[in-house]
Write a structure and sequence with these properties.
362 residues; alpha+beta; Alpha-Beta Plaits; Elongation Factor Tu (Ef-tu), domain 3; six-stranded antiparallel barrel; 19% helix
Length: 362
């Protein structure tokens, strides 16, 4: 299995490791609930270096990114990032991703670990009509995520970048703990925070400095377990669970990132038709009213008829209840709609509730 450059540092901290799409990654350090609550109330530090980084450069780099994605990359400048997707001609997901404008002709696509090779091949297969170069730089990057209300104070002491004036999805290049890095105000937890990218051969210097600086502010190292419960509470989609090549961007509740007026892109006509005709299904959030935890692939019933399966589901450490996401026929998506989830052979009552499950108050 692959390991990140921070593997040894994590083992020293007592990380429990698991296999994750070909990577040996920490699932937890001190416990999923403790780590989850640290991020919600103070701060957490994640190693997300298993994510993929694909560089698109050349004269037509912007045109190519515009064709591949539904969001409007023309709005990007070298100090901005954007959440978007790689879409199929059917308007469904090859992947979701962040795009960073590094220069007027350079765009860095940050994709999911499970999809990095697939995404790279997909992008290559569509470049023939564009004067661009595509390079998979995943192995050269280390990516850290510092998340939580204490994140700015912790990071500011280690960088000359003015973080107070940095808005969400803004980026800056500089150094962190003396190591060259790209810093963006982004994350996957629902909290304020930053993602730090470096191509340094010694990223441990950043990792160690952040943990040391964060000691007095309650910072903890965080594994994949809490990363999943945090993103679910914040209703952030997970590829393979909530979005894939069978779900359209509109059905996934991400219509806000589709900019039809920008011009042609893969899947535009299908998505436009779906918007005009109306959705037949969409993703909803629900809470369990009885006992039990809704897990992915558990069957979902309405009026005794199976209508779908749970896409994502877990106990919510912050909200202290069992929550989940599922796709329902559009006529059953109203808030308050009652449904049943089959948990260990028993039908357990649940109801549709408003999304996101959790939204920060600062």
């Amino acid at each position: 299995m692959k390991t990140t450059k921070l593997y040894s540092s994590q083992k020293k901290l007592g990380a429990k490791m698991i296999e994750f799409f070909g990577w040996e990654m920490p699932v937890e350090f001190s416990g999923i609930i403790e780590e989850h609550m640290a991020v919600r109330t103070k701060a957490g530090l994640f190693d997300v270096s298993h994510m993929g980084e694909i560089l698109i450069s050349g004269k037509q780099a912007l045109d190519f990114v515009q064709y591949l994605t539904p969001n409007n990359a023309a709005r990007l400048t070298p100090d901005k990032a954007q959440y978007t997707a790689l879409t199929t001609p059917k308007g469904t997901f090859i992947d979701d991703m962040l795009v960073y404008c590094l220069d007027e002709d350079k765009y860095l696509c940050v994709v999911n670990a499970a999809n990095s090779d697939k995404d790279y091949e997909w992008i290559l297969s569509h470049k023939s009509d564009f004067d661009v170069s595509v390079e998979n730089q995943s192995d050269s990057y280390t990516q850290l995520a510092l998340q939580g209300r204490e994140a700015e104070a912790i990071l500011q002491s280690l960088t000359g970048i003015n973080l107070e004036g940095m808005k969400t999805f803004k980026t800056a290049r500089g150094s962190v703990a003396g190591v060259g890095a790209l810093v963006s105000r982004t994350g996957y937890t629902g909290e304020d925070g930053f993602e730090i990218y470096t191509q340094s051969e010694n990223p441990e210097k950043i990792w160690d400095a952040l943990l040391e600086e964060g000691k007095t502010r309650g910072l903890l190292p965080i594994g994949l377990g809490a990363r999943d419960t945090l993103r679910l509470e914040a209703t952030l989609m997970l590829y393979g669970n909530d979005i894939d090549e069978t779900t359209t961007v509109l059905e996934a509740g991400l219509g806000w990132l589709v900019k039809f007026k920008k011009g042609d892109f893969l899947g535009r006509e299908v998505l436009l038709k779906q918007k005009e005709e109306g959705l037949r299904r969409k993703i909803v959030g629900f809470e369990i009213l009885g006992r039990g935890i809704a897990r992915p692939h558990y069957s979902v019933f309405i009026n005794g008829e199976k209508v779908s399966e749970v896409n994502s589901g877990s106990y919510s450490p912050y909200l202290k209840k069992s929550i989940g996401l599922t796709y329902l026929p559009i006529e059953h998506t109203e808030e308050g709609t009652e449904l049943d989830v089959e948990i260990r052979g028993h039908l357990v009552k649940a109801k549709v509730i408003a999304l996101p499950f959790y939204k920060r108050d600062y």
